[in-house]
Amino acid sequence: MLPRVRIQSHARQLIAVANLLGSDYTEGLAGVGPVTALEILGEFDGSLVKFREWWEAVQMNVITKENDEGNPFRKKFRKNATKLFLPPPFPDPRIAQACIEPEIESDALPFQWGVPDLDALRTFLMATTVRTQERTDDVLVPVIKDMNRRADEGTQANIKAFFDGGVGVGAARINARGEACAPRKRLEGSRRLGNALGRMAERVQRVDMQGVEAEERADEDEVGPATNDL
């Protein structure tokens, strides 16, 4: 049963990360990036409820600077915690529910690209960029014509059409023979990210072992004690 326990554990962590960074169902927390999100989950044992309780205690000065003095992460993060805003309720249980059981469009009609509303685009650009209609049309009309041409030809542009030269040329270096090749410089990983991932891995391992032990106890209870009767 180990794979099921591990998948469930990972799913909960991904939902927690989505609450912090943002997703289709939430905007996330301003000022919290990927590394900080992993550090928060590692520090508070993967529980956003524990994180919220600590944050609330910091806001009310129930947990003082002296209380967090011996904890490097909390000592550093509490400087930003006073500026952080956690929307009520946090974490919102509806986000987890939406991730686990998303609402799927049931309309059986095939997908079809719509046609841009030229008049609406013109009005929007004139209002937001303070351009005249003539200058706005200089931008919009060629785009609409190109879309109509591709629709008539049945072709669709890909990302290569927007770059000059070979794809990936900017990331390559030139060797002594004038040939493009991959750069030799090794990118060093973030120490903060490595530490955060390490703590997360340790927590997952603990959860996995607890799940395995629970499954084994359940199996033993179901089978019953072993006997020597033949």
TrEMBL record:
It is found in: Nucleus. The keyword Iron does not apply. The keyword Ribonucleoprotein does not apply. Coiled coil: none annotated. Keywords: Nucleus. Residues 207-230 are annotated as: Disordered. This is DNA repair protein rad2. One of its GO terms (molecular function) is single-stranded DNA binding. InterPro entries: 5-3_exonuclease_C_sf, HhH2. It comes from the Eukaryota. GO terms for cellular component: nucleus. The gene is RAD2_7.
